[in-house]
Amino acid sequence: VQLVESGGGMVQPGGSLRVSCAASGFTFNLYHMTWVRQAPGKGPEWVSTISPGSTSTSYADSVKGRFTISRDNAKDTLYLQMNSLKPEDTALYSCAKGGRWTYVARGQGTQVTVSS
Questions:
Q1: In terms of DSSP bridges, do strands 57-59 and 2-6 run parallel, antiparallel, or are they unpaired?
Q2: Which is nearest to 10 in space by CA: 76, 101, 87?
Q3: Which of 55, 60, 69, 87 sits in a 20 to 30 Å window from 30, CA-based?
């Protein structure tokens, strides 16, 4: 299993960013996929999960209405569109193979920093 995130960076409060996760080494279109974030000095926080066929999505209350998870099974790629970013969204964002309670592998992550 290999998961490689990209697209992080620094953005001002209220801005937008899209992070991506390229998956390989497993049959991507058979698995739920999840985004997890970890802020400095804190434990991992579940952000969002999407079903294999994109028919079902779920979000943490802290990001609901601002973030959108999506996937392209033809490209084995997972996305997270983040709008109306807040300083408290600053974290290392990682993608994971599996659902919210069952993910078994995470990528190295991409850093998102929200600051003026």
A1: unpaired
A2: 87
A3: 60
Q: HSE on the CB side for 49, CA within 13 Å?
A: 15
Q: Which residues contact 89 (CB under 8 A, 6 or more apart)?
A: 37, 63, 82, 112, 114
CA 76 to chain centre: 14
Paired with 58 in beta bridges are 49
Q: What is the pLDDT of residue 104?
A: 85
Q: How far apart are CA 22 and CA 3, in angstroms?
A: 6
Q: Which amino acid makes up residue 107? A: G
How many other C-beta atoms are found inside a 10 Å radius of the C-beta of residue 57?
14
How many residues make up the chain in this entry? Answer: 116
- Work out the number of other CB atoms within 10 angstroms of the CB of residue 115: 10
Coil vs helix vs strand at 28? helix
